[in-house]
Amino acid sequence: MFFLYNLLVTFSEFLIKIFALFSPKMKLFVNGRKKVFSTLSHKIMVYDKSIWFHAASLGEYEQGLPVLEKLKEKYPNHKVLVTFFSPSGYENVVKKNKEDVLCYLPFDKKSTISEFVKAVNPEIFFTVKYDFWYHLLDELKKQNAKVFVISALFY
């Protein structure tokens, strides 16, 4: 099962890179991920306490924004990382420039996600709705981060 999942993630990443040659939105998607680790290394230090808030796109970000604002009030000394999967969220929020750290979520590859989570070292992780990724959740569990979901319905 994991083999198929990993194969699908790798294949999807490859396809998106091909589509990026023809689509400006996909180009943002690909190029935004190239600077993720550089952004983290400049904005989150080893000694920083961090809260990580993830939204797939702009709609999810706006749904979770009241929670994010309360988190900032409750934990004023924590760095707040906001990640997006899609360019629609990232490109709109980056213009406002009010987050401590803002970047794209890398593809859910075990080694990449492991490196990402270790760089962020979150105490708390929030995701909005249904943007669940196997390696991400597995690595957060290994790092003992508290994981919360906002605005999801389970039947």
Account of the protein in words:
The chain is an alpha/beta fold. The chain has helices at 2-19, 24-34, 36-43, 58-74, 87-96, 110-120, 134-142, and strands at residues 50-55, 79-84, 101-104, 122-128, 146-150. It has a five-stranded parallel beta sheet with strand order 3-2-1-4-5, with helices on both faces. Helix 4 crosses helix 5 (87-96) and helix 6 crosses helix 7. The radius of gyration is 15 Å and the shape is globular. The mean pLDDT is 93.
Which terms would index this structure?
single chain; 155 residues; globular; alpha/beta; five-stranded parallel beta sheet
SS content category: alpha/beta
Outline the low-pLDDT stretches. none
Major sheet strand order: 3-2-1-4-5
Total number of beta strands = 5
| Average residue-wise pLDDT | 93
Helix content: 40-55%
Query: How big is the Rg?
Result: 15 Å
The dominant shape is: globular
Q: How does the major sheet shape up?
A: 5 strands, parallel
**Topology order in helix (H) and strand (E) letters:** HHHEHEHEHEHE
Helix segment tally? 7
% residues in beta strands: 15-25%
Distance between the termini: 24 Å
Provide a concise account of the structure shown.
By secondary structure, the chain is α/β, with parallel strands linked by helices. The protein has helices at 2-19, 24-34, 36-43, 58-74, 87-96, 110-120, 134-142; strands at residues 50-55, 79-84, 101-104, 122-128, 146-150. The chain is built from seven helices and five strands; from the N terminus they run H-H-H-E-H-E-H-E-H-E-H-E.
